[in-house]
Amino acid sequence: MELKRSYLIQRLQPPFAGNVDPKMLAAGKVFGGGNLGMGEEAWNLLDRLCRFDYMGAAEYEFGAVREAFDGLITRPGGLTSFSQGIGPQQRKLSYKRGYSRETLPPAKNVVVFGIYPAKSSAYYHERVLRLVEDEGPFSVKGGAAIAESFDPITYSGRTDYTVGWLEIDNGFMFFSDETMWRGFCELFSVTPCGVPEVEETVNYASMKKPDLVKAAVNLGVCRTKSEANRIKKGELVTLLSV
Fold first, then answer.
1. What is this structure's pTM?
2. pLDDT tens readout for residues 32-57
3. CB atoms within 10 A of CB 63
């Protein structure tokens, strides 16, 4: 089985909490001809789980999101869930690390959550990991902000950020937020799998040299893999642990 290119990925933000200005609620309902082509009942169900970020492209509107959800609900063989720990050597980090002069917090180990078709699940799992590793090669229409979500150093307490994604081309979802993931598991009647215990602090001393090299490049400690490879393992551990 070969998946199509992941070109359309709808960004999902946390739902509104507390008392919200009705104008803000109304603004989100105008996309795609109104409710992204969904009926009022379906929109209200989803509205308690997430907000749909405006993608700035017609490809996401006029039924594309609704059809993607319909496909998930009616998928032959049903859906399954997954969660997996991901280290900084396995994913692209926030763009801000490349140029900021500020002292930034260290990169952390994170967990990625997902819901995808149970049939041929390995292909969907691999695609999620590739997207988390680097969405760049997919040239996602409007951008998916995956790196920034898993390395949220630029948000400073903001709530208008991405914590979940609906991949439209192949029909699956993944999340950086456990609460949203569990909410969609309940919506789709999918049993949430166990969540790995992941220490946020990265133990660089336990990593093998190839992983240290990847981490060094991702974190901007070294400009290229060739440069990182020339550094001894112990020195890399010291540089990354600062």
1. 0.83
2. 556 676 777 888 888 889 989 989 89
3. 14
